[in-house]
Amino acid sequence: MTGIDLVVLDMAGTTVADDGLVERAFTSAIGSVGVRVEDERYQGMLDHVRATMGQSKITVFRTLLDGDENTAQRANSAFETAYAELVAQGHCAPIPGAEDAIRALRGAGVLVAFSTGFARPTQQAILTALGWRDLADLAITPAEAGRGRPYPDMVLAALLRLGLADVRRVAVAGDTPSDVLTGLRAGASVVAGVLTGAGDRVSLAEAGATHVLDSVRELPSVVLG
Question: Could you tell me one molecular function GO term of this UniProt entry (predicted)?
Fold first, then answer.
Protein backbone atom coordinates (compact mmCIF):
# COMPACT_ATOMS: atom_id res chain seq x y z
CA MET A 1 0.00 0.00 0.00
CA THR A 2 1.10 3.57 -0.67
CA GLY A 3 -1.03 5.11 2.06
CA ILE A 4 -3.99 6.03 -0.17
CA ASP A 5 -7.39 5.79 1.53
CA LEU A 6 -9.58 7.29 -1.21
CA VAL A 7 -9.56 7.43 -5.00
CA VAL A 8 -11.74 10.05 -6.70
CA LEU A 9 -12.47 9.10 -10.31
CA ASP A 10 -13.85 11.20 -13.12
CA MET A 11 -16.52 9.55 -15.26
CA ALA A 12 -16.77 10.58 -18.97
CA GLY A 13 -13.42 9.97 -20.63
CA THR A 14 -11.88 8.29 -17.58
CA THR A 15 -14.10 5.42 -16.47
CA VAL A 16 -16.87 5.87 -19.07
CA ALA A 17 -16.22 6.13 -22.81
CA ASP A 18 -17.34 9.50 -24.20
CA ASP A 19 -17.24 8.80 -27.97
CA GLY A 20 -18.40 12.33 -28.76
CA LEU A 21 -21.51 12.26 -26.59
CA VAL A 22 -20.71 15.55 -24.85
CA GLU A 23 -20.33 17.35 -28.17
CA ARG A 24 -23.55 15.83 -29.53
CA ALA A 25 -25.47 16.81 -26.42
CA PHE A 26 -23.94 20.30 -26.52
CA THR A 27 -24.99 20.78 -30.14
CA SER A 28 -28.55 19.86 -29.24
CA ALA A 29 -28.52 22.09 -26.16
CA ILE A 30 -27.09 25.20 -27.76
CA GLY A 31 -29.50 24.76 -30.64
CA SER A 32 -32.37 24.80 -28.18
CA VAL A 33 -31.45 28.40 -27.26
CA GLY A 34 -31.05 29.56 -30.84
CA VAL A 35 -27.44 28.82 -31.83
CA ARG A 36 -27.50 26.42 -34.79
CA VAL A 37 -24.53 24.63 -36.31
CA GLU A 38 -24.48 27.09 -39.21
CA ASP A 39 -24.38 30.07 -36.82
CA GLU A 40 -21.04 31.90 -36.90
CA ARG A 41 -20.89 31.64 -33.09
CA TYR A 42 -21.19 27.86 -33.04
CA GLN A 43 -17.60 26.81 -33.81
CA GLY A 44 -16.13 29.14 -31.20
CA MET A 45 -18.60 27.81 -28.63
CA LEU A 46 -17.72 24.22 -29.52
CA ASP A 47 -14.01 25.02 -29.18
CA HIS A 48 -14.72 26.39 -25.69
CA VAL A 49 -16.62 23.22 -24.76
CA ARG A 50 -13.65 21.13 -25.87
CA ALA A 51 -11.22 23.33 -23.95
CA THR A 52 -13.29 23.06 -20.75
CA MET A 53 -14.05 19.34 -20.82
CA GLY A 54 -14.48 18.07 -17.29
CA GLN A 55 -15.81 21.32 -15.89
CA SER A 56 -19.33 21.87 -14.57
CA LYS A 57 -21.65 22.16 -17.56
CA ILE A 58 -23.76 24.97 -16.11
CA THR A 59 -20.59 27.03 -15.60
CA VAL A 60 -19.63 26.43 -19.23
CA PHE A 61 -23.05 27.55 -20.47
CA ARG A 62 -22.93 30.68 -18.29
CA THR A 63 -19.65 31.64 -19.95
CA LEU A 64 -20.88 30.88 -23.46
CA LEU A 65 -24.11 32.83 -22.95
CA ASP A 66 -22.52 35.92 -21.37
CA GLY A 67 -23.91 35.32 -17.90
CA ASP A 68 -27.55 35.17 -19.01
CA GLU A 69 -28.68 32.90 -16.17
CA ASN A 70 -32.10 32.01 -17.54
CA THR A 71 -30.75 31.05 -20.96
CA ALA A 72 -27.81 29.19 -19.41
CA GLN A 73 -30.17 27.17 -17.23
CA ARG A 74 -32.33 26.33 -20.25
CA ALA A 75 -29.29 25.22 -22.23
CA ASN A 76 -27.98 23.18 -19.34
CA SER A 77 -31.31 21.41 -18.89
CA ALA A 78 -31.42 20.68 -22.62
CA PHE A 79 -27.87 19.33 -22.44
CA GLU A 80 -28.72 16.99 -19.58
CA THR A 81 -31.85 15.78 -21.40
CA ALA A 82 -29.96 15.17 -24.64
CA TYR A 83 -27.14 13.33 -22.89
CA ALA A 84 -29.58 11.17 -20.91
CA GLU A 85 -31.40 10.29 -24.13
CA LEU A 86 -28.13 9.19 -25.74
CA VAL A 87 -27.42 7.02 -22.69
CA ALA A 88 -30.92 5.53 -22.82
CA GLN A 89 -30.37 4.70 -26.51
CA GLY A 90 -27.38 2.57 -25.54
CA HIS A 91 -24.60 5.05 -26.34
CA CYS A 92 -22.82 4.40 -23.06
CA ALA A 93 -19.97 2.01 -22.40
CA PRO A 94 -17.26 1.60 -19.78
CA ILE A 95 -13.60 2.23 -20.46
CA PRO A 96 -12.11 -1.28 -20.81
CA GLY A 97 -10.72 -2.42 -17.49
CA ALA A 98 -12.30 0.40 -15.47
CA GLU A 99 -14.67 -1.80 -13.49
CA ASP A 100 -11.91 -4.30 -12.69
CA ALA A 101 -9.68 -1.45 -11.53
CA ILE A 102 -12.36 -0.11 -9.20
CA ARG A 103 -13.04 -3.56 -7.79
CA ALA A 104 -9.31 -4.09 -7.24
CA LEU A 105 -9.03 -0.82 -5.33
CA ARG A 106 -12.05 -1.51 -3.14
CA GLY A 107 -10.93 -5.09 -2.60
CA ALA A 108 -7.70 -3.71 -1.16
CA GLY A 109 -9.62 -1.49 1.26
CA VAL A 110 -9.42 1.76 -0.72
CA LEU A 111 -12.61 3.84 -0.92
CA VAL A 112 -13.69 4.98 -4.39
CA ALA A 113 -15.81 8.01 -5.34
CA PHE A 114 -17.13 9.01 -8.76
CA SER A 115 -17.07 12.71 -9.64
CA THR A 116 -18.47 14.43 -12.72
CA GLY A 117 -19.31 17.72 -14.38
CA PHE A 118 -22.84 16.47 -15.04
CA ALA A 119 -25.95 17.04 -12.94
CA ARG A 120 -27.08 14.32 -10.55
CA PRO A 121 -29.82 12.82 -12.79
CA THR A 122 -27.39 12.37 -15.68
CA GLN A 123 -24.73 10.87 -13.45
CA GLN A 124 -27.26 8.40 -12.07
CA ALA A 125 -28.53 7.56 -15.56
CA ILE A 126 -24.98 6.64 -16.60
CA LEU A 127 -24.38 4.54 -13.49
CA THR A 128 -27.70 2.77 -13.97
CA ALA A 129 -27.03 2.05 -17.65
CA LEU A 130 -23.67 0.49 -16.77
CA GLY A 131 -24.96 -1.40 -13.72
CA TRP A 132 -22.59 0.64 -11.56
CA ARG A 133 -24.96 2.08 -8.96
CA ASP A 134 -23.21 0.10 -6.22
CA LEU A 135 -19.74 -0.09 -7.75
CA ALA A 136 -18.25 2.87 -5.86
CA ASP A 137 -18.63 4.07 -2.28
CA LEU A 138 -19.88 7.50 -3.34
CA ALA A 139 -20.99 9.45 -6.42
CA ILE A 140 -20.83 13.23 -6.23
CA THR A 141 -21.67 16.18 -8.47
CA PRO A 142 -20.78 19.89 -8.51
CA ALA A 143 -24.18 20.92 -7.14
CA GLU A 144 -23.72 18.72 -4.10
CA ALA A 145 -20.15 19.77 -3.43
CA GLY A 146 -20.45 23.51 -4.01
CA ARG A 147 -18.44 24.07 -7.20
CA GLY A 148 -17.25 21.88 -10.04
CA ARG A 149 -13.81 21.48 -11.55
CA PRO A 150 -11.23 22.97 -11.58
CA TYR A 151 -12.12 23.83 -7.98
CA PRO A 152 -11.24 21.22 -5.32
CA ASP A 153 -14.74 21.02 -3.85
CA MET A 154 -15.79 17.57 -5.11
CA VAL A 155 -12.61 15.91 -3.88
CA LEU A 156 -12.84 17.59 -0.48
CA ALA A 157 -16.57 16.85 -0.19
CA ALA A 158 -15.91 13.17 -0.94
CA LEU A 159 -13.22 13.10 1.76
CA LEU A 160 -15.62 14.60 4.31
CA ARG A 161 -18.62 12.48 3.38
CA LEU A 162 -16.60 9.28 3.65
CA GLY A 163 -15.27 10.25 7.05
CA LEU A 164 -11.60 10.59 6.11
CA ALA A 165 -9.20 13.15 7.49
CA ASP A 166 -6.06 13.53 5.37
CA VAL A 167 -6.08 14.93 1.83
CA ARG A 168 -2.57 13.59 1.35
CA ARG A 169 -4.04 10.10 1.43
CA VAL A 170 -6.22 10.81 -1.62
CA ALA A 171 -5.65 9.94 -5.29
CA VAL A 172 -7.48 11.70 -8.12
CA ALA A 173 -7.71 10.49 -11.72
CA GLY A 174 -9.21 12.16 -14.78
CA ASP A 175 -8.74 12.78 -18.48
CA THR A 176 -8.53 16.59 -18.56
CA PRO A 177 -6.26 19.34 -17.25
CA SER A 178 -9.23 20.48 -15.14
CA ASP A 179 -9.24 17.09 -13.38
CA VAL A 180 -5.53 17.44 -12.69
CA LEU A 181 -5.90 20.98 -11.35
CA THR A 182 -8.75 19.85 -9.10
CA GLY A 183 -6.60 17.13 -7.57
CA LEU A 184 -3.64 19.44 -7.05
CA ARG A 185 -5.78 22.14 -5.45
CA ALA A 186 -7.32 19.56 -3.13
CA GLY A 187 -3.87 18.46 -1.95
CA ALA A 188 -4.04 14.88 -3.24
CA SER A 189 -0.70 13.10 -3.32
CA VAL A 190 -1.51 11.14 -6.49
CA VAL A 191 -3.03 13.11 -9.36
CA ALA A 192 -3.17 10.92 -12.44
CA GLY A 193 -4.10 11.98 -15.95
CA VAL A 194 -5.43 9.27 -18.26
CA LEU A 195 -5.24 9.19 -22.05
CA THR A 196 -8.66 7.72 -22.82
CA GLY A 197 -10.51 11.04 -23.06
CA ALA A 198 -10.03 14.69 -23.96
CA GLY A 199 -6.51 15.29 -22.67
CA ASP A 200 -3.18 14.33 -24.24
CA ARG A 201 0.10 13.48 -22.59
CA VAL A 202 1.55 16.98 -22.98
CA SER A 203 -1.47 18.88 -21.67
CA LEU A 204 -1.87 16.57 -18.68
CA ALA A 205 1.81 16.73 -17.80
CA GLU A 206 1.87 20.51 -18.18
CA ALA A 207 -1.14 20.74 -15.87
CA GLY A 208 0.99 19.05 -13.19
CA ALA A 209 -0.13 15.42 -13.20
CA THR A 210 2.00 13.23 -10.95
CA HIS A 211 1.34 10.33 -13.34
CA VAL A 212 0.10 10.11 -16.93
CA LEU A 213 -1.44 6.70 -17.61
CA ASP A 214 -2.68 5.06 -20.77
CA SER A 215 -5.85 4.07 -18.93
CA VAL A 216 -7.47 3.99 -15.51
CA ARG A 217 -6.83 0.26 -15.51
CA GLU A 218 -3.21 1.14 -14.62
CA LEU A 219 -4.24 3.11 -11.54
CA PRO A 220 -4.30 0.21 -9.03
CA SER A 221 -0.62 -0.45 -9.66
CA VAL A 222 0.10 3.20 -8.79
CA VAL A 223 -2.17 3.33 -5.74
CA LEU A 224 -1.50 -0.13 -4.35
CA GLY A 225 2.17 -0.31 -5.19
Answer: phosphoglycolate phosphatase activity
Same domain as 217, residue 132: yes
Residues whose CB falls within 8 Å of the CB of residue 202, separated by 6 or more in sequence, listed in order: none
User: Considering the entire predicted model, what is its pTM?
Assistant: 0.88
Q: Structural domain tally of the chain?
A: 2
Q: Which range marks the domain in which residue 209 is found? A: 6-18+92-224
Mind listing the pLDDT tens digit for each residue in 25-74?
899 999 998 889 999 999 999 999 888 887 888 889 999 998 889 999 99
